[in-house]
């Protein structure tokens, strides 16, 4: 495996190493933007190796481990985010968001920036100075829905169609939360809850048959979903809605959008605005991340 790669893509910084692929954008005082990118790059060096060394721990049920068991700050953040939830979940549910949070913190440390964003495969950590906003595009059903954010936080999306595995049948669940790690875990768990466990219209296989080292082990993950009748879609969406409402009431998320076969359900205040090309530096793509 080659080492960490860094390149400027116009005014954005691209960092890549193994499965970690980041797009970083910072705006503000010109004297602070370049150092912010340098700080992000320094924080990225060695990160994959540190996480790889902790994989046996991070693939375990979070109920079996403690935050202090981790040795690197990203692993600690992953465990902390997962421990906020009830039931089975491994810290790997937070890996993409936690990496984005970590690099964002490094980039903004001591810098005067209007805004800074770290996009890790669709999971985004966002810093906004007072009065600053940013607009991201939520991709759903071949359309882009603009959403304007007015405060720092994180956005993450999960679902069965993406890069990793899901226990549920949601096409997409996008969550807005205090951090990207918290959004990442919540999106995974809400997507898992959108489900029809006994439906013959859903095809599943044990996760370990697709990836022997999956943190989901022999749990069955979704590989195909046929067109569902309206009543079945409503039932599955209701399950996800209830899980998301519980998270909202406990302060674990700010808002969420669930999508299933052309139908969407919103939970919490999901701000929207007209699209503005100069104010949409990153698109939030519906991708699934480790469960």
How would you describe the overall organization of this protein?
The protein is of the alpha+beta class. The chain has one domain: Roll (T-fold). 30% of the residues lie in helices and 29% in strands. The chain has eight helices and 14 strands. The protein has helices spanning 30-44, 47-53, 55-58, 73-82, 95-108, 180-193, 207-210, 230-249; strands at 5-9, 12-17, 20-28, 113-120, 123-128, 134-140, 143-149, 153-158, 172-177, 202-206, 220-225, 255-260, 263-267, 282-284. It has a nine-stranded antiparallel sheet, covered by helices on one side. Strands 7-6-14 form a three-stranded mixed sheet, with no helix packed on it. A hairpin with a 2-residue loop joins strand 12 (255-260) and strand 13 (263-267). Helix 4 crosses helix 5, helix 5 packs antiparallel against helix 6 (180-193) and helix 6 runs antiparallel to helix 8 (230-249). The longest helix has 20 residues, at 230-249. It is globular and about 60 Å long. The relative contact order is 0.15.
The biggest beta sheet reads: 9 strands, antiparallel
Number of strands: 14
Strand content: 25-35%
Low-confidence stretches: 274-291
| Secondary structural class | alpha+beta
Q: What is the gyration radius calculated from CA atoms?
A: 18 Å
CATH-scheme architecture: Roll
Instruction: Kindly provide the name of the CATH class.
Output: Alpha Beta
What is the helix content? 25-40%
| CATH fold-level name | T-fold
Tell me the strand order in the biggest sheet: 1-2-3-4-5-8-9-12-13
For the termini, the CA-CA separation is 25 Å
The CATH superfamily label reads ApbE-like domains
How many alpha or pi helices? 8
Question: Any idea what the shape is?
Answer: globular
- Give helix and strand order, one letter per element, not per position: EEEHHHHHEEEEEEHEHEHEEE
The tally of domains stands at: 1
Would you tell me the overall average pLDDT?
A: 91
């Amino acid at each position: 495996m080659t080492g960490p790669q860094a390149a400027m893509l116009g005014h954005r910084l691209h960092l890549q190493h193994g499965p970690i692929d980041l797009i970083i954008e910072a705006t503000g005082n010109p004297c602070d933007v370049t150092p912010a990118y340098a700080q992000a790059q320094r924080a990225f060096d060695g990160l994959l190796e540190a996480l790889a060394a902790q994989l046996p721990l991070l693939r375990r049920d979070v109920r079996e481990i403690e935050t202090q068991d981790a040795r690197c700050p990203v692993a600690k953040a992953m465990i902390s985010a997962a421990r906020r939830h009830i039931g089975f979940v491994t810290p790997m549910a937070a890996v993409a968001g936690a990496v984005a949070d970590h690099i964002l913190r490094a980039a903004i440390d001591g810098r005067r920036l209007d805004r800074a964003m770290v996009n890790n495969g669709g999971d985004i950590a966002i810093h906004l100075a007072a009065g600053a906003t940013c607009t991201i595009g939520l991709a759903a059903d071949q359309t882009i829905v603009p959403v304007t954010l007015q405060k720092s936080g994180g956005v993450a999306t999960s679902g069965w169609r993406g890069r990793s595995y899901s226990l549920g049948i949601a096409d997409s669940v996008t969550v807005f939360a205090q951090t990207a790690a918290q959004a990442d875990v919540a999106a995974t768990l809400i997507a898992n809850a959108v489900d029809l466990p006994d439906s013959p219209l859903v095809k599943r296989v044990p996760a370990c048959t697709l990836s022997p080292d999956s943190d989901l082990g022999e749990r069955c993950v979704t590989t195909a979903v046929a067109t569902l009748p309206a009543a079945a879609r409503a039932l599955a969406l209701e399950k996800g809605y209830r899980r998301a409402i519980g998270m909202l009431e406990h302060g674990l998320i700010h808002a969420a959008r669930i999508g299933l076969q052309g139908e969407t359900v919103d939970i919490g205040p999901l701000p929207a605005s007209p699209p503005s090309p100069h104010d949409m530096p990153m698109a939030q793509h519906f991708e699934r991340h480790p469960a």
